[in-house]
Every structure is written in structure tokens, then in C-alpha cells.
Specification:
Order of helices and strands: HH
Distance between the termini: 90 Å
Structural class: mainly alpha
Number of helices: 2
Strand content: under 5%
Amino acid sequence: MTAATLSQWRDIFLEAGESGPKPHPIKESVEVGRLREKIGEQAMENELLREKIARLEQIRPLARGRSRQ
């Protein structure tokens, strides 16, 4: 290894040190984004189904505890 190579590496190292550490942005993976979207869709669907059940029960309450036999 030559002195020139070591000198070049040292210079690169010192330049990088002067600029300081670079913050890494937090990257949300594609999979996490897809799963968050899916959760949002299911939450919306659940809310719509609860509203539909409430409307149907106002018209005709479900018979609870009654056997279908």
C-alpha cells in the first residue's frame, strides 16, 4: 500500500467528518404502507356494516335467544 493511497483515504475520511453525520430519513416500507391502507379499508367497511346493522335493527330487531329449529 502506498503512502499516496493512505493519504487519499485520510483526506476522504477528514472531509466526511467535517460535513458531519447525515441523518437517514425514516423510510416506510412498501409493505407497511400497503398494510396500513388495508387496515383503513377494513375499518371503513366495519363502520359501514355497523351502521347498516343499526338501521336494520330499527326496522326489525333481531330475535335473540330464539332457536331456528
